[in-house]
Amino acid sequence: MIIMQSVKYYLSEHPCIVNFRWSNTQTFGSTWSFLFSSISIYVLAATTLHSLLSHILPKRRGVPLGPIPAIHSLCISLISAVIFTGILLSSVADIRDTRWFWRRTKTITTPFQWFLCFPLGTRASGRVFFWSYIFYLSRFLHLLRTFFIILRSRKLTFFHLFNQSILLFMSFLWLEFCQSFQVLAILLSTLLYSVVYGYRFWTEIGLPTACFSFVVNCQVVLLGCNLVCHFGVLFLHFVKGGCNGMGAWGFNSVLNAVILCLFLDFYFKKHLKKGKVGNNSGHAGGSSSARYRRRSVSELKSE
Prior knowledge:
Number of domains: 1
Shape: globular
Number of strands: 0
Main location: membrane
Membrane topology: Multi-pass membrane protein
Structural class: mainly alpha
Distance between the termini: 41 Å
Protein name: Elongation of fatty acids protein 3-like
Low-confidence stretches: 281-302
Strand content: under 5%
Transmembrane segments: 32-53, 74-93, 158-175, 181-202, 214-236, 248-268
Organism: Gossypium tomentosum
Order of helices and strands: HHHHHHHHHHH
């Protein structure tokens, strides 16, 4: 009981969390110049490193990284679990403290509607926005995986660069415009990251992999949930009289649609290729299964 009270205090009731305020002059990383500079440096550094390795190292030869990728995956998994717990506890506290405001605005009437639709006039301050800010900062840690992929497998795709850059950009928009749906999006994303990066840590230390594309299928589930929730936000916006930050939500929806199209193109091409390989080598039996497991490991490391 004492442990639970301590966890609740440090993740939702600490003064730094309760009194948080997103400010372009006082909050680190809160300016547009910082955002665009960070994305530009990330893209330039990744493409430069990939180009240099292509000219320096022999074909298909990677750079050994030792336990660094495993430690990175473990850190992201643990940080994501903390953010998930923190924003969940903070949401419960904010729902408890702001129910009086719901009755005045008549925009939302249930906690689930609050997860999808912030009332008009919401400001980026308080508990949930503190954890939204921590989530935004954690996106920079995710960018390191790009360089691990380049160093180990010398692979760099437009989809990967675009996806990582846009996810960072969207998490900034959530804070800048107090966008609706961000709490539920962070809950879904951090739950997925804690599982996926925990699985990546599991495989990095040499433990058995799943017999299917675990990471890719988790990403499909997340994209599907986000798509359904976007329709929920749109419905509440028109039925309940407006949700906060809908301009940013509309822009994010377009970016999400682009990511979804690129991901589905990648997903179907990959699985169609697997299907053709499987048909050509189906007679191989056990050796085919072994090759599939080896391919799963290589795909996991390059995603």
